[in-house]
Amino acid sequence: MGKEKLQEASPEESAMGVEDSKDVDSTSKDASPDKSNKKLLCFGKCLAAGLVLAAILALVLIYGFDVGSDSSTERNSSEFGKDNPTTPSLPSPLPTETPVESPSETAPSVPTSNPSASLPTKEPTRAPTKAPTRTPTKAPTESPTKAPTASPTKSPTKQGTVTYVPGKLTVSSNGLLLSEGLQARVIAQSGERVVLGGGGNGRKLVSSEKFHKEPDGAAAYEWLDSNGGWIYVTNSEVQSSGKGGVGAIYFDKDGNPVDYRRLVSGTTANCSGGKTPWHSWVTCEETDGGRIYQVDPHGVREPQLMTMGKEGGSFESFAYDIRDEAVPRFFATEDNKKGALRRFTPDHADWDDPWNILHSSGTQDYLVLQPNSNKKKGTYIWSNDLDEAKENARLYYRGSEGLDVRDNELFFVSKEQKDLFILNLDDMTYEVHSTKFGLFDGQPDQVKRLIKDPSDKENNLLYFCEDGGERNGVHARDVNGWYFTILEASTSELTDNSGLAFSPNGKHMYVAYQHEGTVFDVWREDGLPFYGKTLSVNYHEVGQS
Prior knowledge:
By secondary structure, this protein is an alpha+beta fold. It is built from 5 helices and 29 strands. The protein has helices at residues 2-6, 11-27, 32-63, 70-83, 386-396, and strands at 165-173, 176-180, 182-189, 193-196, 205-210, 215-222, 230-236, 245-251, 257-265, 270-275, 281-290, 292-295, 304-305, 313-321, 329-334, 342-346, 362-371, 377-383, 400-406, 409-414, 419-424, 429-434, 443-450, 461-467, 473-477, 483-489, 497-502, 509-513, 518-524. The longest helix has 32 residues, at 32-63. The radius of gyration is 51 Å and the shape is elongated.
């Protein structure tokens, strides 16, 4: 019975089976034992076949083998070996875990193609998966995370919040002791290239020329070729013959240096000087036989020797009075024990080309003081006798340096006597004020007046540099004769303060320490200009008339 299920007989075999049965029947009586043996053998074969079939079914149930899946397995194995020639074929032993039946996709742990040795299996996208924001969440790394030593190291306070207290020295910065509410940074150092744009993290732009040695007198101008920038012009007082000169640092509208270049070379001991009404710079040589030159801060016109001072002298500072444009007056001090203060009046003033006014013919005369009994007040004259003026300078104003003119008053200082002279240019009178007060223990040097509104008497301040002294710095005097200190050196390494100037917007004070060759940028942390309001003023002592 089991044999019939395994194999169906053909018609020929069936016919033969009929004939065989007849023969068997005819002989059954004679051969019964053989017939029984045949039946037993047939039963054994069927039983064996059934056991084999049962075993196969058991394997299918236990291991999940699908009958007829051999061809699929062979195809997959062939494809794997084709794509991965170096990868060995799957092992023949049965897995320890039950595999997934007939996977429709290749298992993720088995690569479908050869992996690359160096490239990722998937090409990375060049564009970000998220659209970038237009505004960066952090400042770019090329810009400094701290304000240079181009931008303030401390963010300004809210506009209108006044924090500046002149004379209250509480802030220490870069070797300076500053009034409360001020900050400072170094913008130039002799012998080094000027860092431009404030520098940056990992990126440093510098000037093509190195900053000059012995920086001295200076002034600031609007930079006409820029969008709100300015120029800081500064002398070089190197004493070696022909080694002095004039340089200039150019700033953008935010106060960051963007260039430095030399404007004058080949001169000697360029000490101080001053601005002209048409915004050129006058530089004075402080040496035997020194001369005075006019300089273009923009570098367009060549430096030119002036008429005043052609006779030679140890010249210091320059100022002007142009209240009467038909008769303009120009002044210069001479830093010498017999250095007479000079006045030049051109024969003709051509205001269509004012540059040439200082190079035209004219008259030069000299200051002669006529003091009263206490020598604190008096009258004066302008003399054309140079020898008389020299002797008068020896007696009453030795070593005149800083010079300034505002309205009808001329200010100059005698550094040896530590006196400030104020000349009334209209009534020919003068008065003397001592600068020997408080922290002002050095010699008064250059003078700058900082005022925006002439009617604002409260903020009408006269600033002094200080030559020498233990802690020389910048001081100021108000209209009432009170003195106070804006800043001073907190280390003995900073000496001979000079180069005082204010940016055109009044928000930056520039000052140099000559022998160290360091130039500082000082600003109010409240963001206000120096002529703006202050909280209070810490005075030293009232000046004596």
